[in-house]
Structures are given as C-alpha cells and as structure tokens.
C-alpha cells in the first residue's frame, strides 16, 4: 500500500487558492462527466478530469468533472453545491483499515484491529471477519448515499499484500473487495478499486473505475489497461518528479492524472489528455 491520504491533518481551515494550478485545465463545461442512463450506475470514462482533495477547506472552483473528497468531513451541502455545478462526487472512505480519528471508531471490535499500516492512528482490519465488518461499512456507505455522493473510493484494499497482523490471503482480499463493491452497488453507488494492482484482472468487472497512486514512479501504469479497455477511468496521482517527466506516459495510457502534494490539499497540476503539460 502506498496511500497518501492523510485526513487526520484536518486540524483547521486552510486558505487554498485554485490559482495554484499552473498546468492547463480542460474547458468547462465540455469536460463534465455525463449522467448515466436511467437505472444505470455512473461509470466515468477514461481521461475525464478530476480533483482529489482530502484535507483543508474544500475548494469548489477547480474545473474538474469529478471531485474525490473525504466522506466524513464533506457536508451534504458541499456535495449538493458540487452537483449543482455539474460535478460528479466520490466519497473517500477507508474500508480496509481502522482510523482512531473517525466518529465511529469505537464501533469496531478490538479483535478486528491488526498492525499499524504506517499512518498515525490507523491499523489494518481483519477482512476475514465480514460478519462484523459488513454492517459497519454499510453504515458508512449509507452516509455517502445520504449526502448525495455518486460513488465511493474505498481505501486500504490490499491488506493481504501487507504486514497486517493477520494471515490474509489473496482469496480473502478478493472476497472482501467484492463485498465492498456489492455494498456500494446495493445503494446505487459506483465504486472504484484502490491500488491492489495484482488483482486487477479478477476485479475489473466488479468496479466502475480505479484509483492509483504513483504508477508512473513505480513503472506500473500499463497494468491498468484492463480498466481502460473496459471504458473505465483510472484516476491517477503522482507526488514525485515533474509533470512533464511522467505526463507523456499518462497520456499514452489514457489515465486521468494529477500531480499532488502528499497532504492532498486543494493544490493540483493536471496532466491533460493530449499535448504537452
């Protein structure tokens, strides 16, 4: 897991300006993601623009078709304002790790909590214990639906590949990830596969999009071709290097790519679908 989401840094409002973006932005409203057909779930197309902001005061002025924001800290009113502007909204949640700073932290039985995942206040969950975890995750997903989100980004979906403190297997992870997808779908929400690159071939059919961190840095971006071939967006972020160094790879692979700071505040640089950044 190479997650860079740090919602625990929300210690107060920050003044953030959209003018921090120095790369060209796709024009509005041409880049807005269309609504799904009646009765269908939203499925973002490859190369759609996006903004990922998990800390600081939400900046609604970014000209991106999709906003991925913290599910707990974003209000129903903020989601409604983004939707009124034509933006699609993704509800960020941790589904594979416990976070001691969340309002429902005390609802998780202690025996479900494993080793720390490298982030302050977070511990891996025993995803084999679906009977205990399912109602907890369902309640969180209900929150996302009630706030008006279009989709969910479930984080920490690759505990089996990490030192979780539990003997998790690849089969355990597939079962749990599919449960998470089902919980989202049962509520009419789309859902994205976060990282977990090794299981993309088995899971591409269960998720409407993917979210990746640092595939260019680790030379892994081609592994998302099954999502692109299926007409599903891959929302991608890099933290290291210069935009012009990795953006051509992103363009070739048809990813929706951003340069972000590791605290995931409003600052962004957008790698456009074509041309030089």
Main sheet overview: 9 strands, mixed
* CATH topology type: TIM Barrel
| Low-pLDDT ranges | 1-30
> What is the structural class?
alpha/beta
What's the N-to-C terminus distance? 28 Å
By CATH, the superfamily comes out as Aldolase class I
Number of helices in the DSSP assignment: 6
CATH class: Alpha Beta
Per DSSP E runs of 2 or more residues, the count of β-strands stands at 12
Domain Glycoside-hydrolase family GH114 TIM-barrel: 49-267
Signal peptide: 1-23
Protein name: Endo alpha-1,4 polygalactosaminidase
Keywords: Signal
Summarize the structure.
By secondary structure, the chain is of the alpha/beta class. It has helices at residues 76-84, 130-147, 170-186, 200-203, 225-229, 243-253, and strands spanning 50-53, 66-70, 88-94, 97-99, 113-116, 122-125, 151-155, 190-194, 209-213, 234-238, 256-259, 269-271.
Annotate the secondary structure layout.
Blueprint: E1 50-53, E2 66-70, H1 76-84, E3 88-94, E4 97-99, E5 113-116, E6 122-125, H2 130-147, E7 151-155, H3 170-186, E8 190-194, H4 200-203, E9 209-213, H5 225-229, E10 234-238, H6 243-253, E11 256-259, E12 269-271
Parallel strand pairs: 1-2, 2-3, 3-7, 7-8, 8-9, 9-10, 10-11
Antiparallel strand pairs: 4-6, 5-6, 11-12
